[in-house]
Q: What sequence folds into this?
């Protein structure tokens, strides 16, 4: 088995994403979307507490006391916080499902690791509203012409340009 080349062209990535769905992929997507709906309903009834998602919503409202998040993702958290609770949680989970699905298509090649959607870890992500699926999808998509460092640099640059603070305060943000 050879090592995976992390240098796919945009055309190759597009071809992998547009392949016809297999029966396993359809089952996995249907199961994950169904679970996302069930978990969103559980959460709306007060039967489940999505710790990670609740922390993201707090960050979206400006409360960064629990964890510190990159400022480029805060607008996404703000949108989710403004949506009705059930819809916001379901939308977040759909993004996670699509991220893992895209990664399985891009990185899986001919195998198309749809089984990644059928793991305990994926169900954990859906129940607690974790961000892992979105990160995995972003990493897979960055394997083409985009680079991780460019995304981080653009996000950081946008944040610095949008803030009305002194350069001394900006430099101090690296230390503290």
A:
């Amino acid at each position: 088995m050879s090592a995976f080349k992390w240098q796919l062209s945009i055309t190759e990535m597009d071809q992998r994403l547009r392949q016809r769905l297999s029966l396993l992929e359809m089952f996995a997507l249907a199961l994950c979307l169904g679970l996302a709906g069930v978990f969103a309903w559980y959460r709306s009834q007060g039967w489940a507490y999505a710790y990670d998602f609740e922390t993201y919503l707090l960050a979206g409202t400006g409360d960064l006391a629990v964890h510190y998040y990159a400022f480029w993702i805060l607008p996404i958290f703000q949108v989710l916080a403004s949506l009705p609770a059930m819809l916001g949680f379901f939308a977040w989970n759909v993004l996670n499902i699509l991220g893992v699905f895209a990664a399985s298509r891009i990185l899986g090649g001919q195998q198309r690791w749809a089984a990644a959607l059928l793991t305990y870890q994926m169900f954990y992500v859906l129940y607690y509203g974790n961000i892992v699926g979105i990160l995995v999808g972003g990493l897979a998509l960055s394997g083409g012409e985009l680079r991780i460092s460019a995304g981080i640099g653009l996000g950081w640059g946008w944040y610095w340009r949008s803030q009305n603070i002194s350069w001394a305060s900006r430099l101090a943000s690296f230390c503290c």
